[in-house]
Structures are given as C-alpha cells and as structure tokens.
Amino acid sequence: MKKKINKNTRYICLFLTLFTFIIVFFYMIYVKHRNTVEEQQKNQLGVLATTGANYVQSYLEEQQYEFQNVLSITKLGDTPKQIEQQVTQKIKLYWSIALTYLDYLEYFSLDRLPIIEIAGLKKEDINHYTKLSMMSNEVVIGPWVTINSDNNGIYIFKGIFNENGKHGVVVGRIDLKMAFKKTIGQMSVGSNGYFTLGDINNNKLLQGGSHFYQSSSSHTPHFEQDDPMINGYSFINFGEHNLLVSTKLPYYEIEQPIKLTFYFLIGLSIGLFLLFVFITFTLVKMNRVKIEHSLAIQYQEELYALNQNATLGFFSREIAHDYNNLLTPIQIYCELLEDELKDNEELSDYINEVNLAVNQCKRLASRLLSFGSNKTSSPSYTEFDSIEVIQSSIKRLRTLIPASIQLDVSLPTTKVLLYGEQLELVQILFNLCLNGVHAMEETGGTLSIHYSVESPMATLIISDTGSGMSEETKRQIFTSGFTTKKEGQGNGLGLAIVAKTVEKFGGTITLTSTLNVGTTFTIQLPYKENC
C-alpha cells in the first residue's frame, strides 16, 4: 500500500512539473509574440510618421515656392507710391488664391517698417527677417507663432525691390492648421490613433487625423492621460525650424488581439496537459498488461535457454572428448612418420601441415570444453607473423578450391606482425574464402586474396566474381543465424563470427557487393611495424 502511495505521489509531482513547464513554455511564446507585435506596430508607426512628415514638408516647400513665384515682380514703377500700388494689386490677386494656405498677407514699404506691428512677432524679429529678405531675392522663413490655441503659423518674408533699390517687404503667414489638415489630416493612424505636429521639444502641438477631421467635432481627440500609447517619430527641417511629426496609437488597440493570443495559448496548454494525462494513464494501464504478459513469456524463454545451454554444454563436452581421443593417435603417427621421413623434404612438409592442422583442431576442442563447462578462458594472444599464417592457410585452401576457380594472391615480402591468436586469423581467412568459393561453384571465376600494409593498418582484401548480394542481404549478412545457403549447407554463424573476431583484433570489416558481379570484403587490422 505504501509503495502504491509513493508511486502515485511521483506521478502527481511529474504531472505538476509538466504542467508548470507547459505553462512557462507557452507564456514565453506569448511574451515573444507580444514583443513582436509591439515592435512591428512601432515600426509601422515610424513609417507612417515619416510618410506624414514628407507630406507636410512637401506642402510647406510648395507654398514657399508659390510665394516666391507669384511675388517675383520684374517691372515696378519709379515712385514709392507706384510701387506700392503695383505690389498691393499683385498681392490682392494672390490673396484670393492664397487663402487656402495663408491666413495673413500684407505689404510694407520701407518707410512704414519702423511703425508696423505684426501679430505674434516682436519688433526685433520683424527687423531681423526684413533685413534678411532684403539681402536676397529669395523667400525667408520666419518664426513659428501661436496666435491662439487654434491658430498656429509660420511667417515668411519676401523683399520687394527694383533696379533702383529696395522698396519694401511682403509678409505672409502659412496656416499650419491648414497645412496639417491638408496633409496629415487626410491620413489615419489605426482606428483611434492620431498625428501631432510640434517643435523639436514637442511643444505648440497640432493634433488630429482623418477620423478626427471627418467627424463633426472641431476639437482634437481626447484620451485619458493614463492611457498607454505607442509612438512613432519623424522630423521636418523647414527654414530655421526643426518640426516633429509623431504618430500616437493607444495601446488598447493592439492589446485585444494580444490578449486573445494569450487566452488561446493558456487554453491550448491546459488541453495538451489533460490529453497528456489521459494518454499517460492509458499507456500505463496497457503497459502493465503487456509487462505481465512479457514476463510470463520471458520466464518460459529463460527456462528454455537454460535447458538448451545445458544440452549444448553436455554435447560439446562429449564431442570435445571424442575429438581429442581421435586426434591423439593422428598426432602420434604424425610424429612417427616425421622421424621416418625426415630425409624426404617434400613428405616432411606434408607431415608438418597435417601436424599443424591437428594442433589447430586441438585448440578448437579446448574451446568446446570451455564452453561445455561454462568456464571462460582468456585467449593466448601473442605477436605473430601474419604472412606465415596466411601462406600456410592458402596451401590448405588450394586443396579445397575446384579447378573452375582461379586463385589470385598478392602478399607483402616482409613480415607483418599482428597481435592476437593465429587460429582466429585462419578462421577469418577460411570463412571468407570458402564463402567466395561457394558463390562461384556453379559459374567458376576468380578468388582474390590481396594483403598490403600502410601504417598504421594492414589491409586484407578478399574478393570473388560470384553471384553477389542484394541490398537486403548486405544489411543482414553479419547477423548471427542469417544465411543464404541451402538447408544443411550453412548455419549462419560464419560471417557473424568473422565480424566479432575482427573486432578482437581491433580492426574493421566492410563489404561491397553487386548482384551478378561479385563481392569484396575489406578488413583493416592494426599491425606492429618491424623495428
């Protein structure tokens, strides 16, 4: 009971941890989404402010150009009175047009300048900008003035003179409210946002937008001071003025879709958590039944394996004893024949080969005894000359290869020392070569054995021109128990043993094979360079 409670506690902790992780994960997604939306909105407001600023600047420069163009009077009378009449008549005609963008226009002769007054301008400003306008034939941009809360303007000055000298100045005032309405007032900022136009310190504001000027109200939009706003900015350079155009959008206009995203992610996280809990409990229940069933099968397989190993062990011990009993007289008679035939060099070589084979068979019998007694024995690893082992094995292979198969051998002329057991190298060579012979027994062909060294590896390449292998066969060829031979001709252990034996040497084995072309095994083994 206590164990079950502890298990349930672990599940609860796991689910709480998972739920916390899901909530945190989706909250991070929400925060990233919110920041992305805010950044995108700020960028859009910045672009909108720049566009509006370009419109306002173009409008102001257009009025400056128009003022310059209309008042460029080339022919004036000779007397001050004639000049004043001509200029007054000119600006009277111009005023009928300029009412769309000017809210003030008047001509002053030089003799009247000391006594004139202009709304919003100080005396020193009038003198300063008049002198500037008399110094060139260009329009001079004067100061920004605020006549009242609803009337802001920028004064412009144009000197009037003929070939005989200076005669006066025309003063106009660009209606900023009209400039604002004609440009930015035609644009919208979201559904509830607006534009502002002011100086560099954001003072003397004009504000509004298309939704404001299209409404019946003549007042600027009203927002609570605590309403958070998103802003975009851009600047206008007009004469001495650095004007600031800004876009303002209430945060609540983009807050609603962001909140909807947040609610969606929270709902999704809860739904995923509940789905995970349901799937987990279902899988746990199914897994419990599966485990109980697999345990029963496992107990049966283990019992079968124990019986099988015991049977194999018994038979391997019996075979090993009989094998040794048969090999002992062969070895004795080989020794006797060796003494009798020591003067016959050719027959002595044959007896040596038989004796070598007997010794290798005894080693195999020893391994069978170790397997049958469930004892592990470490192999007798030593350094040996692999060239001698391969040459000796090839001699025996020649007696097993039919005449329809040619043997192509290429070996180094110097010693190649390997560290391991000689018999294991023989097993590798015999397994691969006999497999190649089997692949060519119906068609004939060439069995190639090429052995070379290139520090730090010795490379043994065994290839045949037999039937080759399919891709499916190549994927399983080193799997224990897999064979393509007919029943009774192979047990599927040969190549699996070869692969494991190569690993014991610390080497690698690779295979390339093409159907109806042949097969090549490449084995790389670390060797000791001769000192």
Helix content: 40-55%
Count of extended strands: 15
**Spatial extent as radius of gyration:** 52 Å
For the residues shown, what is the average pLDDT? Answer: 79
Characterize the largest beta sheet: strand count, sense, and whether it forms a barrel: 5 strands, mixed
Trace the largest sheet across and list its strands.
10-12-13-15-14
What is the end-to-end distance? 71 Å
Low-confidence stretches: 215-225
Class computed from helices, strands and strand pairing: alpha+beta
Strand content: 15-25%
Instruction: Spell the H/E element sequence.
Output: HHEHEEEHEEHEEHHEHEEHEEHHEE
Q: Specify the overall morphology.
A: elongated
Number of helices: 11
Question: What this model shows, in words?
Answer:
Helices cover 53% and strands 22% of the residues. The protein has 531 residues and is of the alpha+beta class. The strands form 4 sheets. It has a 5-stranded mixed beta sheet, covered by helices on one side. The longest helix has 89 residues, at 252-340. The two termini are 71 Å apart. The relative contact order is 0.06. The model is unreliable at 215-225 (pLDDT under 50).
Produce the secondary structure layout:
Layout: H1 2-70, H2 80-98, E1 102-109, H3 123-134, E2 140-148, E3 151-162, E4 165-175, H4 176-182, E5 194-198, E6 206-208, H5 210-213, E7 229-238, E8 241-250, H6 252-340, H7 345-372, E9 382-385, H8 386-400, E10 405-410, E11 417-420, H9 422-440, E12 445-454, E13 457-464, H10 471-476, H11 494-504, E14 508-514, E15 518-526
Parallel strand pairs: 10-12
Antiparallel strand pairs: 1-4, 2-3, 3-4, 5-6, 5-8, 7-8, 9-11, 12-13, 13-15, 14-15
